What we know:
The complex is a heterodimer of chains A (about 1200) and B (about 375).
Chain A: E1 14-17, H1 21-26, H2 41-53, H3 56-68, H4 79-111, E2 114-119, E3 122-127, E4 136-140, E5 148-154, E6 160-164, H5 166-169, E7 175-178, H6 181-184, H7 190-195, E8 199-202, E9 214-218, E10 221-225, E11 230-231, E12 236-238, E13 242-249, H8 255-258, H9 269-304, H10 317-331, H11 338-357, E14 371-372, E15 384-389, E16 396-407, E17 410-412, H12 449-457, H13 460-471, E18 476-481, E19 484-488, H14 492-503, E20 506-511, E21 515-520, E22 523-533, E23 541-547, E24 553-559, H15 561-566, H16 573-588, E25 592-600, H17 603-617, H18 623-634, E26 639-650, H19 654-663, E27 667-671, H20 676-685, E28 695-699, H21 704-718, E29 728-733, E30 739-744, E31 753-758, H22 759-765, H23 771-780, E32 783-787, H24 791-805, E33 808-813, H25 819-824, E34 827-831, H26 838-841, E35 845-847, H27 852-890, H28 903-913, H29 915-924, H30 930-935, H31 941-944, H32 951-976, H33 990-1012, E36 1016-1017, H34 1018-1038, H35 1041-1046, H36 1056-1060, H37 1064-1091, H38 1095-1105, H39 1109-1112, H40 1141-1146, H41 1160-1169
Parallel strand pairs in A: 15-27, 15-33, 27-32, 28-31, 31-32, 33-34, 34-35
Antiparallel strand pairs in A: 1-8, 2-3, 2-4, 4-13, 5-11, 5-13, 6-7, 6-12, 8-9, 9-10, 14-35, 16-17, 16-26, 18-19, 20-21, 21-22, 22-23, 23-24, 24-25, 25-26, 29-30
Helix pairs in contact in A: 2-4, 3-4, 4-28, 9-10, 11-27, 11-29, 13-14, 17-18, 19-27, 21-23, 27-29, 27-32, 27-33, 29-34, 32-33, 32-37, 33-37
Chain B: E1 2-6, H1 17-22, E2 44-48, H2 51-78, E3 81-85, H3 96-101, E4 110-118, E5 126-133, H4 140-143, H5 148-151, H6 155-159, E6 170-171, E7 174-175, H7 181-184, E8 190-196, E9 202-204, H8 215-221, H9 231-234, H10 264-270, E10 278-285, E11 298-306, E12 316-322, H11 333-359
Antiparallel strand pairs in B: 1-2, 3-12, 4-11, 5-10, 5-12, 6-7, 8-9, 8-11
Amino acid sequence: SLNDVVFPSTEEERHLRANDRELNLSYKYSDNAIKTSKYNIFTFLPLNLFEQFQRLANAYFLFLLCLQSIPEVSSLPWYTTVVPLVLVLSMTMAKDGSDDMNRHRCDKQVNNRQVEVLVEGELQSEKWMDVQVGDIVKLENNQFVTADLLLLSSSEPLNLVYIETAELDGETNLKVKQALTVTGKLEDSVEKLANFNGEVRCEPPNNRLDKFTGTLTLKGETYSLDNERILLRGCTLRNTQWCFGLVIFGGPDTKLMQNCGRTTFKRTSIDRLMNVLVLSIFGFLMIMCLILAIGNGIWEYQEGSKFAAFLPKGVNAPFSAFLTFWSYVIILNTVVPISLYVSVEIIRLGNSFYINWDRKMYYPKNDTPAEARTTTLNEELGQIKYIFSDKTGTLTQNVMTFNKCSINGKAYGELLDFSGQRVEINEVREKVDFSWNNLADPKFCFHDNSLVEVVREGNPEVQAFFRLLSLCHTVMPEEKKEGELYYQAQSPDEGALVTAARNFGFVFRSRTPESITVVEMGELVTYELLAVLDFNNVRKRMSVIVRSPEGKLTLYCKGADTIIFERLNPSCSNLTEVTTLHLNEFAGEGLRTLALAYKDIDPEYMEDWKLRHHVANTAMDEREEKLDALYEEIEKGLLLLGSTAVEDKLQDGVPQTIEQLSKADIKIWVLTGDKQETAENIGYSCNMLREEMNEVFIVSANTSEEVRKELQTARRKMTPDGTEEPTVKKSRSGLFCLQKTETVADEPVNGEYAMVINGHSLAFALEKDMEIELLRTACMCQTVICCRVTPLQKAQVVELVKKYKQAVTLAIGDGANDVSMIKAAHIGVGISGQEGMQAVLSSDYSFAQFRYLQRLLLVHGRWSYLRMCKFLRYFFYKNFTFTFVHFWYGFFCGFSAQTVFDEWFITLFNLVYTALPVLSLSLFDQDVNDWWSFQYPQLYTPGQLNQYFSKRAFVYTVLHSGYSSLVLFFIPWAAMYDTVRDDGKEIVDYQSFALLAQTCLLIAVSIQLGLDTHYWTAMNQFFLWGSLSVYFAVIFTMYSNGMFLTLTSSFPFIGTARNSLNQPNVWLTMLLTSVLCVLPVVAYRFLRILLWPTINDKVRGRGSTHLSLDKVLPPTPRRVQARRTSTRRSGYAFSHAQGYGDLVTSGKFLRRTPKSRTTPSLNSAFIARHRIKNENTVI
Amino acid sequence: MMASNYNAKEEDGHQPAAIGHGGAGTVKNKKPDNTAFKQQRLPAWQPILTAGTVLPAFFVIGLIFIPIGIGLFVTSNNIKELEIDYTGGDMSSPCYNCSQSYSWNSTKPCTCSVPFSLDQPFESNVFMYYGLSNFYQNHRRYVKSRDDSQLNGDKASLKSPSKECEPYRTSDEKPIAPCGAIANSLFNDTLELYYIDPNGSRTAIPLVKKGIAWWTDKHVKFRNPGGNDNLTVVFQGTSKPVNWRKSVYELDPSDPDNNGFINEDFIVWMRTAALPTFRKLYRIIHKKPNMTPTLPLGQYILEVTYNYPVRSFEGRKRMILSTISWMGGKNPFLGIAYITVGSVCFFLGIVLLIIHHKYGNRNHSADIPS
């Protein structure tokens, strides 16, 4: 069907035939070459310029340039605009160019990767970019998947392949894909593959990673295709020797590429404010120009017409006013100088580098420095109000360690000193020596020697305890080398327990469907595995029934304490009491606990039970219920062994960081996919939930109404006399005030509350009609924990807060499930150094440890915000002052748009004379150093309240500039009025006056800069004095004979500097203007510090009164985590997925394992196997 | 300002494990460099506005400014200045007739004499200025209407002046030299000064017309084309500015060093004023070698050849006689401003001191909430 050619853009269905290049090419599908670069050599200049002029500022300057080319309007020579514009354009161009070069390089590297392709019946190595849709490619182990492929066959049984999707979705566990049986038969026979002519019809290219629909037609039969059959580009083949695949989507059509490049461009609130300000400045500019133009009209009418004998003939008054308007638009353009945008970018870039360079955010363990992946958001880091944090991998390390246990009424794992006091366990403490056990895991660490002693003494309970741990689980062992065991556990808890047993001398070595081999205190013992009574969420326990070599039948059971205790033999009641005490203690420390029990079984009963089990297992209906009843029957009358306590290890410094951040008035919400109990536990262990809190509300209802009720009840408890209706402030924001915003006001609360809400309730609460209720209640709480939430819900919560609080949000996470919230929040932070990269890739900042967040916010964020605000305030001050002087001069030059400064000065003022001092102010300034920032996290709050730069601050700046410009114009005016030089010659000529006015201005703004600088480094001094010297050097050069004689028309100011600057009254005028500009500012600031000091002033003052930091500062008291004495019980801490029980016993996965040891690939086959359902559906 | 100097010497990094990892530095890792710059620990001086620094500064500024101001004020007051408005707008003014009848196009010179008297003698060199008011020499169209290349003696520009000079670029299809509106409107009144002896006889006071322009203007910026040889030849083929009565090479035929573009009256005029009211140096009356005052007190007559019309735009013309000082001409503003600012500073210092004494203990670091 060569006729139905469909273009990719309008593609509705993809159709292709394997090994038929001719047909496939006729569809003009894109090949496998990717192109992420934007330009090539020829398109670079025009395209890049086109893009750049789309920016408002650049376009504005182009417009000014056009205006300047009209002689009647031109009030400034062309170079005043061209020089800055060219500079800015070329800087941006250089940056874009180098970025694109990198992309070109990457593209080239990827496109030139080699892969084996089946061409004309032979396997040939070809470049990736030459691979076409419909080709069959061969992938080998650890190779990247070339394109989106239909899996045809593989080296593994059942045509499985294992892939790692970390690059795609950040999940590090292996995933399994399975080929259709019909294609699987092709195996690796080149001949069969070359003759394969299946036709595929499938969906057009799209970006959905988890969905694929299509059909394969082969020899008249049609097979349905789904995501299970597709290998996506970006994945890596693992544990699979080889596989063959049919290319379905190539290059830009692949789901990986379809997912790229649509990251939303984040803008900071300062950016948005700046846009509004720039717009209002434009309005202001127009008003000024209008006033001056009207002035010009009047002047021309009244004076200019009579002045005709002297002035070159002008035009009539109204037209002259019109022209003057545009002339003043040119002159006064400095209110919004182009260099503002460039400087802002440079400052942000500089502050981003500081983040990259910070050694205190470098994590040596995996050699990861912090990284600012976005360079445009820095100042927003100083304004964060809400933090949304993931739990696993962010607050916790996602490492479980066997920490404590209670065996037969005795607790182990505590370290006591001689007086019986608890000793804090840290890295320095001596670890238990496991060298007696050559199968021990060297990474395991335990500090209580007594447990080793008892187990080696042969204490039967302790041995039984560890035997249970080594038998009752679904872990798969891997023994790559003799004695080097690796456990593949489905949940890290289980891995931790089996590893503990291994180190205490009960080494789980290998398993078959019917047996488990354990090395018990150096002795190889094989147990016959009779049944696995698997874990699920209802049972909250798992058991195994084994027969020892001696023939003894035993049931080993572990599970949630409450569940186990219900099933104990009454004889254990004393032990239960003691164990409960221990359990409470463990739970109080935030450990995840399990109770262990066993029971011996009568062989005859077992025979009977096994029969019934078989019947139930093969029953057609109500199989689950029947099995449950059977399990219930046998798991009775258990004998308690003890309990384990596993620590879900928090990352270092998490509680301290959270405390610091909450002192900075930042609210932290934990959004986790974990279970409620786990999440609560972590909440307690990182001090977000505290015993002394008035109440912790738990919202876990099943209907919309109940959720609403629970939320309302909680809110009323917190503010009994609060209003029922939320206070919503409606306003408009954004450019032209087009965006409507609604802000829900914060409500006062007495006391400390917390809220835990589960995903199910959250789904109701996030509905349109309840979201405000949720927000109000949640925002009153000190701590909010959302558990069992989906990635989408995470993003929804963030969006909710963004929408109604108008506050700056930050999301931090490490996994693919955090990507949505990282992208939704104003700032996304990824925890790097873990294996998954998805979160980091979509984040704006990344570092290795949660605790670096406090440095990022309290130090870097605060400084960035402070610097940016100082910069903006100062920059607007400087330029407004500059411009206003022109405005005043308009009244003295017949509103003729004559400049008051030399044209060269206008060109260079922003670019040369003031650029570097301002940059050094905004790159080096610190009001207080990082130490004080940590000491007083309250210093962070001004940022949250937008105190340093707001519309109000802007108005003050404008008024300040107004004052300064009055001084800077009228003092020279009055001082020079009708005066002469000390030799009687001219000094009030235009050129001398221009020189005086511009020098006064430059000195005044430099002094103001000095006043604004809080942190004088050598660089600041150098740049400030350097710029002033450069100014004088430049004017003496430009006003020199040589310059005049070379370029007469460009440098008419010859001699002005020499003739003016030797006059005492000129210098006296400069001194007077400087003092007058600075004096009120100093007086005001002094009074403000004296009468209304801010926290910054106090801290600064404090820092200065004590010259040596070491003397004043007591070492930060190390917070010893309070031990909770609560009855709170941690729940059964297995991860919530179903176990592998059925697989362990199914035996299916062991088809090719004659030996007792499983091969690595089979092992993963086993793990992945249970995900496969409905194989090979034939339509 | 008070300041604190410190170099932060803090522990770097939290991890003791770093030693194990970085080792002896042989392994290249990504650990950022420990430089003061990268770690933002540059040694710095942190000025703080404290009472100890601000208050003395105010007093010191006050104490410095007041004497300077007094000095300036006294100096300015000691300068003798006499200003005579000879515009003739008033019926009673001797130049009334001239001002009424005169226009650019009339050929007949009109003269008037303005008598005045000096109450006190002017010693040392006396400078004679003409002053114009309401004259917008700083108007943009006016300021740019010149060709510096032409004035600098560039022959090409002489023949073809810059477009900026329009509409005073050519006349009768010949280029105008000097072109442009500024040159065209050259001040062309002639002022002469006579001393009336008590016996009634008039003595002309010698007015020196050289040395009134900036040295750089006279010697660098303005040059006659082709050096100073026969200007008549050099300027052949050019036309005089429309308002001028004589050509540029006839400005001072007696002195080749003061003729053509380098005529000092012309140079002075070409240095456009910054403000619509201005004065320009016209002549210098050098002091006499003996001890007699340059201008003794008594009766004088100012003889004006009234050429320059200002009535149309309500301008004023003045003749100013002035002595000068180290700080230039008479202008009391700076002196008064310094005295005022100095006093305000001193006063502010006192007020701040009182406020500081009353409320100063508020800023105590102990009350930082934590």
